[in-house]
From TrEMBL, chain A:
Domain Cytochrome c assembly protein: 25-184
Organism: Marinobacter pelagius
Function: Required for the export of heme to the periplasm for the biogenesis of c-type cytochromes.
Gene Ontology biological process terms in this record: cytochrome complex assembly
NCBIfam families xrefs: ccmC
Official protein name in the record: Heme exporter protein C
Record-stated family: Belongs to the CcmC/CycZ/HelC family.
Residue stretches spanning the membrane: 21-44, 56-84, 91-115, 127-146, 158-177, 201-222
One GO CC annotation: plasma membrane
UniProt keyword terms in alphabetical order: Cell inner membrane, Cell membrane, Cytochrome c-type biogenesis, Membrane, Transmembrane, Transmembrane helix, Transport
Major localisation: membrane
Membrane topology according to the record: Multi-pass membrane protein
Gene: ccmC
Protein localization: Cell inner membrane; Membrane
Lineage: Bacteria, Pseudomonadati, Pseudomonadota, Gammaproteobacteria, Pseudomonadales
Tagged with keyword Transferase: no
Automatic annotation (TrEMBL), chain B:
Organism encoding this protein: Marinobacter pelagius
Keyword Cell membrane among UniProt keywords: yes
CC terms in the record's Gene Ontology section: plasma membrane
Membrane topology: Single-pass type II membrane protein
GO biological process: cytochrome complex assembly; protein-heme linkage
Region (Disordered): 134-156
NCBIfam families: PRK13254.1-1, PRK13254.1-3, PRK13254.1-5
Stretches assigned to the Extracellular side: 30-156
Species classification: Bacteria, Pseudomonadati, Pseudomonadota, Gammaproteobacteria, Pseudomonadales
Protein name: Cytochrome c-type biogenesis protein CcmE
Top-level taxon of origin: Bacteria
Role this protein plays: Heme chaperone required for the biogenesis of c-type cytochromes. Transiently binds heme delivered by CcmC and transfers the heme to apo-cytochromes in a process facilitated by CcmF and CcmH.
Length: 247, 156
């Protein structure tokens, strides 16, 4: 069993798998995301209270959802890096941190655009918005720390510890709307209950969330491949690969 | 598992538990500062400081909104269905402001327990529905309870 685990950690093996997986991730992701967003923005019924302005939910929720998911994935990879010293886990953290940063920024931005017409303000220092801003800074910190340390191995360990320290923020973001008084409304999707919107609203929302997951998978593979080629540039298989790509 | 890895995993778990406990204690100690607003019960119980800028939040009580015909002055009561606080505000209200809707007002409590607001924000909940469904639900709640059950059943 452990041998399979180590095979999974081999950059060369992953490179091959990723190449085969990526077209599927892109096609399925683009189809789901496009279907969800078009359905949500153009065909879903409008809300009785907010009218059409609620439609930004079809972009806001997927980005906010992914921003947190990506951080959890990074935390799992950080544990793997610290305990098993697996190279690929570190490659993953390094490759997806900027993606998470962009997703968090988009979630904050779309939230602000949504907040202005509905709440009456772009920004308020409530627990949900503030903890999400902290997530943005955590992503920024992870990227900066990684760039600041030249040695690959010490960078990997330092970044892993930072990612793990930051993971406490995730439950705070999730439950902020329940633990404290906030201006932000509670979650529409809950694991244990039916979503608090009709099917013609939550189905497109679910499609866009799933679609964004696939797109993220594709992006992660693409960025990991680039990072692997850079790190393994002196190995035989990378040289062969690069030479084979030439006309 | 290899003993060294086991040791590392233990350290990681201790690290996580330690940070978790530290953050939980900190946020628990600061809970009053993290809460965005005081609800009417807290204000009625005297938990909110006077003459300091605070936020008050709750529902706009049905039938309590009085608009001054000559200015932008509005008076209404904010309730949490236990206690309510009178609020006075001069300015433009957000579009979602309505009786029965949530609001968060920023301002000061004066000597008579009135809340003088300089900013009013609307708060909405996590329930979204098409206008037709909202209408149907409202009709159903006004009709007799038996008719209400049938009106609520369509498609979802």
């Amino acid at each position: 069993m452990w041998q399979f685990f180590h095979k999974l950690g081999s950059p060369k093996w992953f490179y091959g798998i990723a190449t085969r997986l990526m077209p599927w991730l892109l096609v399925v992701g683009a189809a789901l995301l496009l279907a969800g967003v078009v359905w949500g923005l153009a065909f879903a019924p409008k809300d009785y209270l907010q009218g059409n302005s609620y439609r930004i939910i079809f972009i806001h929720v997927p980005t906010a959802f992914l921003a947190q998911s990506v951080y959890i994935m990074m935390a799992v990879a950080a544990v793997v890096t610290l305990v098993w010293r697996m190279k690929l886990a570190d490659v993953f953290v390094k490759a997806v941190a900027p993606v998470g940063l962009v997703l968090t920024f988009l979630a904050l931005f779309t939230g602000a655009v949504w907040g202005k017409p509905t709440w009456g303000t772009w920004w308020i220092w409530d627990a949900r918005l503030t903890s999400m801003l902290i997530l943005l800074f955590l992503y920024g910190g992870v990227i900066a720390l990684d760039r600041a340390i030249n040695d690959e191995k010490s960078a990997a360990r330092a970044v892993s510890v930072l990612v793990l320290v930051g993971v406490v923020n995730i439950p705070i973001i999730k439950y902020s709307v329940e633990w404290w008084n906030t201006l932000h409304q509670p979650a529409t999707f809950k694991l244990t209950e039916k979503p608090s919107m009709p099917a013609e609203m939550w189905v497109p929302l679910l499609l866009s969330v799933l679609g964004l997951y696939f797109i993220f998978g594709w992006l992660a593979c693409l960025r990991m491949q680039t990072e692997i080629i850079f790190r393994e540039q002196r190995t035989r298989w990378v040289k062969d690969l690069v030479m084979a790509g030439r006309p | 598992m290899h003993p060294i890895r086991k040791k590392r995993l233990t350290i990681v778990l201790f690290l996580l538990a330690g940070i978790g406990v530290a953050v939980a204690l900190t946020t628990y100690a600061l809970r009053q500062n993290i809460n965005l607003f005081y609800d009417p019960s807290q204000i009625a119980a005297g938990e909110a400081p006077r003459d300091v800028r605070i936020r008050a939040g709750g529902m706009v009580e049905e039938g309590s909104v009085i608009r001054d015909p000559d200015s932008l002055k509005v008076e209404f009561r904010v309730t949490d269905f236990n206690s309510s606080v009178p609020v006075e505000y001069t300015g433009i209200l957000p579009d979602l402001f309505a009786e029965g809707q949530g609001v968060v007002a920023m301002g000061k409590l004066d000597g008579q327990g009135r809340f003088v607001a300089d900013q009013v924000l609307a708060k909405h909940d996590e329930n979204y529905m098409p206008p037709e469904v909202a209408d149907a639900l409202e009709k159903a709640s006004k009709a007799q309870p038996k008719a209400g059950e049938t009106a609520q059943s369509p498609s979802y």
